[in-house]
Amino acid sequence: MKQYTIRRILQLIPVLLGISILIFAVMKMIPGDVISGILGVEATPELRAQLAAKYGLDRPYIVQYLDWIGGVLRGDFGESIRTAEPILPQILTRFQVTAELTILAAVISWFVAIPLGILAAVKRNSMADRLIRVFALLGVSVPGFALSILLILFLSLAFGYFSPLGYVGFFEDPLRNLQIMILPASILGISISGSVMRMTRSSVLEVLRQDFVRTVRAKGASERVAIFKHVLRSALIPIVTLVGMQIGSLLGGAVIVEQIFSLPGLGQMTLTGINQRDYPVVQGCVLFIAFVYVLVNVVTDLLYAYIDPRISYD
Amino acid sequence: GCGGGNTPPASSAPSAPVSTTPVEGGILKYGTDSEPTGFDPHTVSEEASLRIINQLYETLVATNADMTYYGQLAESWEIPDDVTYIFYLRKGVKFHSGREMTADDVVYSFDRVLGKTEAGDIGALGSKDSYYGGIESVEAVDDYTVKFTLKEPNAAFLGNLTSNYGAIVDKDVIAENGDLMRADGGTGPFMLGEWLPDNYVELPKFEEYWEADRVKLGGITYYLIGDEAARLAALRTGEINIANLSSTNVTAAEKESNLSVLGYQTNDYIAMGCNLSTPALQDQNVRQAMSYALDRQTLINVVFNGQAQVSTMMPPAMGHWSLGADSFDLYQFNLDKAKELMEAAGYSDSNHLSLKLAAGLMDSLRQAAVVIQQQLSEIYIDVEITNLESGEYVDIWGKMSTPEAGFDLMVVSDGAGTDPNRAISFFFGTGSSANVFGFSNERVDELCALGIATTDEAKREEYYNEAQEICVEDSTKICIASPMKYFVSSTSVQGFAPSAADASDFRDTYLTQ
Amino acid sequence: MKRLGQTIRDLWKDPMGRIGMIGILLVILVAIFAPLAAPFEPDKMVAMPKSAPSADYWFGTDNYGRDIFSRILYGARVSLEVGIIAVGIGAVAGYILGLLAGYFEGWVDRVIMCVMDILFAFPSILLAIFISAVLGRGLVNTMIAIGIVNIPVFARTVRAAVISAKGLEYVSNARSVGVRTGAILVRHISPNVVAPFTVQATLALSSAILTEASMSFLGLGIQPPDPSWGSMLSEARTFMEQAPWMAIFPALFIIVTILLFNILGDSLRDVLDPKLKT
Amino acid sequence: MDHLLEMRNLSIDLYRGRRTPPVKLVEGIDLNIDKKQNFGIVGESGCGKSITCSSIMGLLSFPLSVGAGSSIRFQRENGTDTELLSLPKKQMQQLRGKEISMIFQEPMTALDPMYTIEDQIVESLRFHTDLSRSAMREAALEMLRKVKIPRAEEILKEYPHHLSGGMLQRVMIAIALINNPRLLIADEPTTALDVTIQAQILDLMNELRESYDTSVIMITHDLGVIAETCEQVAVFYAGQVVEQASVDDIFHHTAHPYTSGLLRSVTSLGGEQKELYTIRGTVPTAGQFSSGCRFADRCEHCTARCREAVPPLTEVAPGHQCRCWLHASGAEKEAAR
Amino acid sequence: MSQENILLDVQHLKTYFPIRGGVMRKAVGHVHAVEDVSFQIREQETFGLVGESGCGKSTTGRSILRLIEPTGGQVLFDGTDLCTLSREQLRLKRRDMQLIFQDPYASLNPRMTVHKLLEEPLLTHFHLSPKEREEQIQWIAQAVGITAEHLERYPHQFSGGQRQRIAIARALICKPRFVVADEPVSALDVSIQSQILNLLMGLQQDLKLSYLFISHDLNVVRHISNRVGVMYLGRLVETGSTEDVYRNPLHPYTKALLSAIPKRDPSEEKERIHLEGDVPSPADPPSGCAFHDRCPHCMGICKEQPPQTRELEPGHRVACHLYNP
Ligand SMILES: Nc1ncnc2c1ncn2[C@@H]1O[C@H](COP(=O)(O)OP(=O)(O)OP(=O)(O)O)[C@@H](O)[C@H]1O
Ligand SMILES: Nc1ncnc2c1ncn2[C@@H]1O[C@H](COP(=O)(O)OP(=O)(O)OP(=O)(O)O)[C@@H](O)[C@H]1O
Ligand SMILES: [Mg+2]
Ligand SMILES: [Mg+2]
């Protein structure tokens, strides 16, 4: 298990290196640059050159890349060109918001989707099953941004409610923090719960067909025990896989929700970085998001072993 | 000249007869549409940041709603000759650090802008030349007196001083922080408080402000709410109490009893510029045809919900400086003439001209582009629109006089400023940095030189009128409309009167219960 | 071909599958015949801006005074085009890469899958933003961007299917008979990939339409005045109150179309999955 | 009731949608199982052995259901005679694993891979007793020793995938017997096992049955297993019982052509002749049965009557029933006309 | 044993599967699935391979055909060492040697008609005109008892026995000389098994085939084989003519195996040798004789030294310390 963990982490290296090269190259290829952004309208070529030299943007790309990635390996993501602030601490603060959003969304979606998915599977072909399936389909079909705006509008007009402004960290004021996060997290949660629901349903159906369920019933187990103790545990593996993959789409989906709800998360930071062509910021953010994502995948894999004793990875 | 020693006029608050008393120390919650980049008044120029910078910093002189000047940090000034300006500073003005502002700080601030401090060039500020390039020297005569000597007479000098680049800053703060992007070295009525990027900026009241009694707000908090519909929703629920809205949503806000709408004519205008490196656009007939073909009123109806005025490069808000669009035939919609000109240039139903038009993500530019495309299609021009995201937009903007840009036309939004010199020479002077479309006309350059060298208003008007006529005739930059801007606020917000000259003065603003 | 016919027949038997097929056929017909069916030209200003739905303008007009109904019809073309071409790019590239990776294992597999992991771990919306920023805006580039984002999903699906197919007895059988590698891939392995692949394709189609909408929301999608449902919806958000119809109709069409693709995908999965056959 | 279990006219329907009528997978099954009896059911794959037994446990699930007019009566521990098919769900759950237990064909898949052996044995105690956790553990350990599992203490902590098929089948037996049931249904318990392991398991079952006083229904398709373990045998063919008798009668006084064919093809295996005896043709599939005798197509003695009417199950000798026109009484033949 | 009519000569065949582990996924051990197996098959002979599940029967069969790459040893087929052939040479050689799989449900591509299934080997190995191909197909279909109307059907439309006929037809259509039949009847019902066995024996006569017949059913092996080999944990513990092995089993394992066959008749009396425990894991076989921990006759030497294979009677070989000279 330990060896497997080490191996999985070693395998991340080429992937992360690849991502770092990709994002670096992409940032260089994007038209527009940070200098025009800073100097704005009236920049002279000399001024531009001067500034480029200041940020080391005049060096060969390979040198710039090595310099950057070398720093990253030492835990130094560099400084924002626009604000001259070190990037990593900023990413970490921003990540708290995105992580909270993602986790809340995931939890909301599980609380809704997994029980409903089970219900649909157990009562296969019933009216409840059909309703749940339609609901799941709707969940995956509504664009998140439309849902967000619609909800904002609806809640403000009908209930005079607006998601509170002024982000507060969870540890500063949990209650207020939750008030702020609940709406965006629910919207994200709804957008993924459709697929979780479908996966739960099909996974539970699959397990229900397996022999051991019959044994459990033959032992005299009640339906509740059979489903929640035995079926669910086996059904969990594909669900966990899906959820692991969804963390990725949540991190991405958060970009839009963060933008609409003005949450100071990593997605916003990346978008602002892109708009300002603040290379180190964008590179740092993307690399970090990718890192979190692959890490989540490793954790998912390790979770399998926790859920399923057959998987031991040795 | 402009008489000195004016005290600021008592603000003419909108007449909503709300009888309730001010809430002592209320916090104004402002919904802002985009994230400020930073607060260094000498380098930053984008609107979201300026809104805040204007609360933090002050300049020697400032502009009244009627475009006259009053002393802000300077109590008064005199102009002994055409090239000498002596400012008598207000005594007892404190920086937010608590230190008193003196003449040295003024000298330092201008040294910084002009790149003469020990730290050298502050790295940004391409604007220094156009604003303060004419300054020969800035000297502290005594602690409260500063003398500016100009290289040559400059009628726009006072006007230039009112820009944020003329802000007086605290050198200690700069020494400590390197720059002012995230630090506060101002003297303004509000101080920089907590800034949570991409979320909010808090500006608490500066208790030692030199006019502290006048300021009734306890502070302003700027919340970022990027989406306009969301801003309106937040206004409705009282989550914020003031925000900028586009004219479209103002209609909705007007229907709400607890919201009031404050509109003012800006001196910004949108225009379409021609890339003169495109051969087809070197033909003046084509450019003029496009000017004729634009039905500006329709565009205003569509894009600005009717809330804008047809404008030349001197928007109507500039008052007597503006000749008004009515006086130009080229700004009257005339399809026949446009077609005639196009045909003269060799285009016809079977020979269309294809042009690439760059637009930004800003709603008004994006929408204007669509209308322009539609209208130009009537005169054998096929326009292909690309909406550029802001980083690219700025990049391409700088290249619009070369084929490198990859675009033939661009929709821009420009601020004409308060002085005709900026409106003309900044955007049309040969080689001027904002003259991105590569316009060049000797007579215009000459007129600008004349206009700046004299302080005789009548003369200046004459010069600039002529320049304006030439620019319109040339049609390299086809101006379209100058919009109204709107603040929507809760009715509890009182004592706020935005104008083109200053749309962010909250010193007299207060909240009622 | 026989199998295709059989699959369609099976789909038809499933009520959901039938709804999906008929619905999508309708959308396709709408897309094809948009020029005939649309009462107005989609990018002409034909009436007062923001007129409410009426007998003349069924879905009302937008802020430019263009007929929303006509634009929706034309928008079907764009949305389908985006979906189909984007998924096509992702599917073809993903299919080839997945097949190679799955069949040859070893370093070919490792290299391909590492590249796929890289693409996959890259936040997809950001990747699409970057790609379209590099390539420039416009319909084709949007499609390429969404297509590239789709490659890893397809490659993984195909690879997994190939690997599991390789373990099948009849593939060993073919090898033992002496059938050539190419023929094994084509005749014995590929058909197994078809089912998960098609299901993936319908799901990817719906997500491509969604991604296009999201990209339009961020200003990166198709460029004006061409109508796409996504860009119409994102344009409408400022006018949500004055002209709700500007948002309602494109949203409705997006949701229904994606719904249809999902329904079809679900049903296809059931039809093609032998485990569910009793 | 003198029997432990009486199955009368059991039929099982396969639902095929609202518009198509259900298929009868098995039909007209009558079986009597006595106390402490070893009852064997043989038949080819798919002839309905497993579903017949599952219906006793009430374990049929959609799309299968017990047909109208069926009855399964069971004599419970407390002496009451219960109709299992109409027993409420709760009571059925109490009965399952307590009074009737079941062992399945594939030990590898019959245990939940996610829980330890201990969990799974203890669970079946927990459903039916209120013993303390440690007492249940003790009982589980003792049971494992009874089924001759070496290293029983360690095995308790292991997961199913650690054990071999033979071990797992022992665990299954332990689970089935731990509540001392009155009836044990063993659905091909040794088919998936090797001969040496099969021998171990069959011996074990014989031994345990002695000490537990349980009746056993042994399902198999291997006549050898029947010969080793059973007293009474029912031969299934295509969803029907075609012959029912004591083991001895089945092997030595075979009445039905199918049974004798089966026996001959098995015995000819070891025989001198190179050419094996075969029953020609294949088993018909459910839903496609002919209107006559279902074995008619493969039968050497097939007559016209065989194709027209289903032969009744007739007593050919005391305690020996057979479903064949060859053995039908004159009256029955008359009735068929 | 005379040399000239030996078709297949397997010498010291070994097949190991790596067990991977550690950070770099290096092989940290091996499953010794086939360990030093040697035997010969003569022309038109059936060699039966029996043993319990997991003892390496299938792996032996597949290693001989190089469907699994053997780790060591030689496989001489008609004089050529199969292990030295290139991929393409081997592929062409497959015409002469075929495999029949255990599971007729899984070993036929469900998406191909019977006709296509039978055509494929012909297309692979011969350049025939369509007419000639058709003749071949008709011939083999008739030989295995599939009617012409069945040719256009798909495998799932057949019963298990019929499918196995199709599988056999597919294996034999190229007229191979040697066929590995890997448990060809284990998945079938008793009443169908004999049909298939008869068919296999008949075809052997007609086509002059040699079989390696793998099964765990001792009765079946006895019936069909001329000679048998008994495998235990990857090793061949006893080989000999069917007569010899069944009448006079030498190895204790063979004896136990034979005694475990259920009686055919309730009245039959049978002495049973009980084997304790399970087959050990081939990844970690016991030292010395692999059978020693289950052997009723285990001696000290059995735990230390692997026994040599000895020919006790002509053609009857056994690997057991009991028969040490
Ligand atoms: N869930 C089900 N759905 C549909 N048909 C079923 C189902 N379960 C069983 N059948 C059918 O019922 C018939 C009898 O099945 P059953 O499992 O009882 O056979 P069996 O005699 O136990 O065979 P085997 O020896 O293969 O276990 C078969 O034709 C089978 O296809
Ligand atoms: N691809 C493989 N990788 C690793 N181990 C394998 C592989 N194939 C087979 N083995 C192992 O090799 C041993 C021999 O397997 P093989 O399939 O040859 O046995 P068998 O005698 O045919 O058994 P059965 O009667 O169950 O078919 C087993 O322990 C098996 O687990
Ligand atoms: Mg069964
Ligand atoms: Mg095998």
Automatic annotation (TrEMBL), chain A:
Protein name: ABC transporter permease
Location(s) in or outside the cell: Cell membrane
Domain of life from the UniProt record: Bacteria
Annotated membrane topology: Multi-pass membrane protein
Record key words, sorted: Cell membrane, Membrane, Transmembrane, Transmembrane helix, Transport
Family stated for the protein in its record: Belongs to the binding-protein-dependent transport system permease family.
Any matching Pfam family: BPD_transp_1
Major localization listed first in the record, in broad terms: membrane
Domain ABC transmembrane type-1 per the UniProt entry, residue ranges: 95-304
PANTHER family from the UniProt entry: DIPEPTIDE TRANSPORT SYSTEM PERMEASE PROTEIN DPPB-RELATED (PTHR43163:SF6)
Transmembrane segments: 12-30, 101-122, 134-158, 178-197, 236-261, 281-307
TrEMBL record, chain C:
The entry's keywords: Cell membrane, Membrane, Transmembrane, Transmembrane helix, Transport
Compartments (UniProt record): Cell membrane
The keyword Phosphoprotein is assigned to this record: no
TM helices/strands, residue ranges: 21-40, 82-104, 111-133, 139-158, 197-222, 242-265
ABC transmembrane type-1 domain sequence ranges: 76-265
UniProt main location, coarse: membrane
Entries under Pfam families matching the protein: BPD_transp_1, OppC_N
Membrane topology type: Multi-pass membrane protein
Family indicated by similarity: Belongs to the binding-protein-dependent transport system permease family.
PANTHER family per record: D,D-DIPEPTIDE TRANSPORT SYSTEM PERMEASE PROTEIN DDPC-RELATED, OLIGOPEPTIDE TRANSPORT SYSTEM PERMEASE PROTEIN APPC
Name of the featured protein: ABC transporter permease
Lineage: Bacteria, Bacillati, Bacillota, Clostridia, Eubacteriales
Automatic annotation (TrEMBL), chain D:
Topology term for the membrane: Peripheral membrane protein
Location of the protein in the cell: Cell membrane
Membrane-spanning parts: none
Keywords: ATP-binding, Cell membrane, Membrane, Nucleotide-binding, Transport
A family per Pfam: ABC_tran
Family annotation (PROSITE patterns): ABC_TRANSPORTER_1 (PS00211), ABC_TRANSPORTER_2 (PS50893)
Domain of life: Bacteria
Domain ABC transporter: 5-263
Tagged with keyword Transport: yes
GO molecular function term, any single one: ATP binding
InterPro entries, per the entry: AAA+_ATPase, ABC_Ni/Peptide_Import, ABC_transporter-like_ATP-bd, ABC_transporter-like_CS, Oligopep_ABC_C, P-loop_NTPase
Family: Belongs to the ABC transporter superfamily.
Designated name of the protein: ABC transporter ATP-binding protein
Organism: Pseudoflavonifractor gallinarum
Automatic annotation (TrEMBL), chain E:
Keyword Transport belongs to the record: yes
The keyword Transport is annotated on this UniProt entry: yes
Keywords for this protein: ATP-binding, Nucleotide-binding, Transport
Cited Pfam families: ABC_tran, oligo_HPY
MF term (GO), any: ATP binding
ABC transporter domain: residues covered: 19-258
Superkingdom field: Bacteria
Similarity annotation: Belongs to the ABC transporter superfamily.
Protein name: Dipeptide ABC transporter ATP-binding protein
Species this protein is from: Pseudoflavonifractor gallinarum
